[in-house]
Every structure is written in structure tokens, then in C-alpha cells.
Specification:
There is one protein chain. By secondary structure, the chain is mainly beta. The chain folds into three domains: 33-116, Immunoglobulin-like, CATH 2.60.40; 119-201, Immunoglobulin-like (Sandwich), CATH 2.60.40; 214-364, no CATH class. Helix content is 8%, strand content 49%. The chain has two helices and 23 strands. The strands form five sheets. Strands 9, 10, 11, 12, 13 and 14 form a six-stranded mixed sheet that branches. Strands 19-15-22-23-21 form a five-stranded mixed sheet. A four-stranded mixed sheet has the order 4-1-7-8, with no helix packed on it. The longest helix has 25 residues, at 2-26. It is elongated. 23% of the residues are buried.
């Protein structure tokens, strides 16, 4: 009996000791895990980075962006990273740091108002023939400009969202163009042309398919608004010798080459074939789209009393002779094409309507 009691006591002691040791093992704290944290992005103000309320790094604005790389010991759910404005101590972002994986990355793009987690590159390229334009991001003024614009911008944006660029004439509230900026495309572009009244977007210059040709991109504007029928027009092309008189008839291309330019002032493109030789130039007649009818009605100042509009047949105006199509094989050119007229009094009083002044805008969109 005594032996049984002793045995029972001994076994109880062993079990108690085992449980005591196990409990001691469970009470041992988990060792801290080390992770590597990388913080990248940009900021317009000085920032400080706090981990468990201690400053672990800082970034000074205007020094080339954010580039923080540090090792952190992660032990429990209180492993909190905070990013704050150094000047105001305002907490801009709070993030819990997990114990895994080892490499962890945070993107921070701060514009002084809000932190974003992504940025895209936007190039704004265009030309205003007259007037000053304002460019707005989500309704806030980004910049204003006259003439040529070629600006790269870093647009801050959260992943999965959009932002909006709009363009208006300075001093006016009417929006001329609105473009949605997506977060998924790293490189985005806005190309435009503003004639002082209307704005055309998606202006770009593509090279010709045939390197012997020249790509011509153009829009048409009349200088005779009271006589123009306000319809789409076709330019029908001719070739002519450079030293021929302005009233000399040109040689019409065969097969006929028609280039339609819409009445709304938008751009269109066509490949012009190589000229017969270096001493030749291109000229054109202006017709109603798809016809050989003049897109004008008679009246001053286009047609003076006693004069009649006659078929142009590749003739040129004196203005066009100085500012015509400058053909360059393999190149892409952008022109603002206007109309002009030539009055001839003999043998009959005739008016020939053809190209007027051509404004070469190519340099602003290359």
C-alpha cells in the first residue's frame, strides 16, 4: 500500500514538473523578426519617419526624391510606422509593419496636401496661335502659358483612381478640353492646338510609311468667312515649277490626290508623294468635298464687282509663293492652311482662289 502511494506521488510530481516547464516555455517571449523597409517617392515638404514613435529617417524636399532604406525589428502588432510633416508635426500616414516578408516597400508621393501611392509622367505639348491658356488639375491651376508649350509633369495619383486635366482660356470659365488621367499608364501625353477660339487635341506627327514621301498634317481656316459656305473642303494637288509665274497653270497629279479638311477645324493627314524634281513645288485647288464646286459664294471682299471666280487649276497666290508647302522626303509637317485669292484683269476680270498663307507648326509637335 505504501508502495502504491509513493508511486502515485512520484508520478504526480513528474507531471507537475513537466507542466511547469512547459508553462515556462510558453511564457518565453517571441524573438523579434528583422525586415527591410524601402520607402520611395517624392515630396514637396520635409518629412520625418517614425517607428514606434522614434525618428528613424527624414527626407528634405527638393533633394531628388524619397529614398529611405532601413532594417526594422518587428515584434508585435504595435510595430507602427508614421510619416509626418517635419514643420507641422502633422501625421500624414500611419501603417502597420508586418513581420513578413523580409523586403517591404511603401510608395509615398506627397504634394503638400495629400499623400498618393502612385505617380505617372504626363507630357503636355502644344501651341496657341493667340491668347493665353490655363491648365488645371482637378480644377486647381497647374500653370498658364502662351505660344508653345512642352512641359513634362509628374502627376500624383492613387492606384485604381483617375484625375482630370482641363484647359481653358485665361479670364474665361468655359472648358476647352478635358482629359482623364488614368493610374495604369506610366507615360501619358496631351497634344493640342489652339487658334484663339477653338482647341483641337490629339495632335501628333507620325512619319510617312514611305520614306520617299512626306506626311502632311493640316487644318483649314478661311480668310473669307462671309463668303465661305462653312462645309468640308478637299484640297486637290498639283505640281509646278518654282520659277513659274503665279498665274501659270499647274500639272494635276494623276491619279487625282484629294485631301479632305473638315469644316470644324480638326486636323487630317495625308502622304504626299515625291515631287518630279528639286525645282518643283506643290500647289492645290480648293473644292467642296467630293466635288469640283467652289466652296464660296460670290461677294466682297472675295469677289469684287465685275469679277468672276474661275477654276484655279494649280495657280498660286503671291503669299503662297513665299509660304507654301516645304516638301522634305521622310519628314512629317504640320500646317495651318488658309485660303487666298489672285485677281487678274486681263484677258477677263477673274478671281483664282487657292492656298493663302501656310503656317508651319511642325517644330512644336516634333
Amino acid at each position: 500500500m505504501k508502495l502504491k502511494i509513493f508511486t502515485l506521488f512520484f508520478l504526480s510530481a513528474v507531471v507537475a514538473l513537466s507542466l511547469s516547464c512547459r508553462k515556462a516555455e510558453l511564457l518565453q517571449p517571441e524573438p523579434a523578426k528583422i525586415i527591410q523597409l524601402n520607402i520611395t517617392g517624392t515630396t514637396d515638404v520635409d518629412l520625418e519617419y517614425l517607428y514606434k514613435d522614434s525618428i528613424i529617417a527624414s527626407t528634405k524636399a527638393g533633394t531628388g526624391g524619397i529614398g529611405v532604406k532601413t532594417l526594422l525589428a518587428v515584434k508585435d502588432q504595435n510595430s507602427i510606422l508614421k510619416i509626418r510633416n517635419k514643420a507641422t508635426a502633422e501625421i500624414l500616414l500611419t501603417k502597420t509593419i508586418a513581420a513578413a516578408p523580409f523586403d517591404q516597400n511603401i510608395n509615398v508621393f506627397y504634394d503638400g496636401t495629400k499623400i498618393y501611392n502612385n505617380a505617372i509622367s504626363l507630357r503636355i505639348k502644344g501651341y496657341a496661335l493667340s491668347g493665353e491658356l490655363e491648365f488645371l488639375l482637378d480644377g486647381n491651376l497647374l500653370f498658364s502659358a502662351t505660344g508653345a508649350v512642352n512641359k513634362p509633369y509628374s502627376i500624383l495619383i492613387d492606384k485604381g483612381t483617375t484625375r482630370e486635366i482641363s484647359i481653358r482660356k485665361k479670364g474665361e470659365t468655359a472648358i476647352l478640353l478635358t482629359k482623364t488621367i488614368e493610374s495604369t499608364a506610366a507615360q501619358q501625353n496631351i497634344g493640342y492646338f489652339f487658334d484663339g477660339t477653338k482647341l483641337v487635341d490629339n495632335v501628333k506627327l507620325d512619319p510617312p510609311v514611305n520614306p520617299a514621301n512626306m506626311m502632311l498634317t493640316a487644318k483649314f481656316e478661311t480668310t473669307f468667312p462671309n463668303q465661305f459656305k462653312n462645309i468640308d473642303v478637299d484640297l486637290v494637288f498639283y505640281t509646278r515649277l518654282k520659277n513659274a509665274s503665279n498665274t501659270t497653270v499647274g500639272t494635276k497629279l494623276v491619279p487625282e490626290l484629294r485631301f479632305t479638311l473638315p469644316k470644324n477645324g480638326s486636323f487630317n493627314s495625308i502622304e504626299l508623294p515625291a515631287l518630279p524634281g528639286p525645282n518643283y513645288i506643290y500647289s492645290f485647288d480648293i473644292f467642296e468635298k467630293g466635288t469640283t464646286n467652289d466652296p464660296y459664294i460670290s461677294g466682297t471682299p472675295l469677289v469684287l464687282t465685275g469679277y468672276t471666280i474661275k477654276p484655279n487649276e494649280g495657280r498660286i497666290t503671291s503669299i503662297f509663293a513665299d509660304n507654301g508647302i516645304n516638301f522634305e522626303a521622310g519628314k512629317s509637317k504640320l500646317y495651318l492652311i488658309t485660303d487666298g485669292k489672285t485677281n487678274v484683269s486681263t484677258p477677263t476680270k477673274s478671281v483664282y482662289i487657292s492656298g493663302g498663307r501656310l503656317t508651319d507648326l511642325s517644330q512644336y509637335f516634333q
